[in-house]
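Cross-posting from the modeling subforum.

Setting up a comparison between two proteins and wanted a second pair of eyes on the formatting. Protein 1 (sequence, then structure tokens):
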Amino acid sequence: MAFKPLGDRVLVKRLENETTTSGGIIIPETAKEKPQRGKIVSLGEGKRTDDGKLIAPRVKEGQQVLFGKYSGTEVKIDSEEYIIMREDDILGIIE
């Protein structure tokens, strides 16, 4: 893919949730919520301060992250669905 986000934005691919519960109950497609975790695919150069200084991103490509339910903008690139969001919308890194 040849897509590079600008500034402090990151491109995230949603990771799918489990389709069965721990008790073995299968969750139908219509009852599933969109997952709030994803993998960083690409990121911009970082955020600029008012005086022009560049602050590098704290996240890296390949890291799994948690983000808010309504964070970012959903886009389709090469028939794949992604979310573009600001680094500030990321709640945390999954280690």
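Protein 2 (same layout):
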Amino acid sequence: MTENQLAKKVLGCALEVHRALGPGLLESAYQECLFYKLQQKGLSVVKEKPMPLVFEEVQLNCGYRIDLLVEDKVVIELKSVESLNNVHLAQTLTYMKLGEYKLGLLINFNTDLLKNGIKRVVNDL
């Protein structure tokens, strides 16, 4: 499956989760529910995937973790905040660069309409 096909499935699942729960919960609640829905669709999903940082030939475990990684291709960064900002975008792009992933989805569940809380992030590698 391509990154775009996976993204479409992820967004469908995210919409289902948002419709069921609405805005206002903690990020961890949305993460668990989306993880469950994606697995239910038969997708391989890793939750809280550690992302080491390599600095001057040394691998450092700095506590960076991808919220969800789908099929080892698409980075999903989840938020439940008033609004997304450039730091959230930079965080997603950093994870994508560290893991050499092409596509990421930054999803803020704390919105009335989920489509207003979604940013597609592309890494040109």
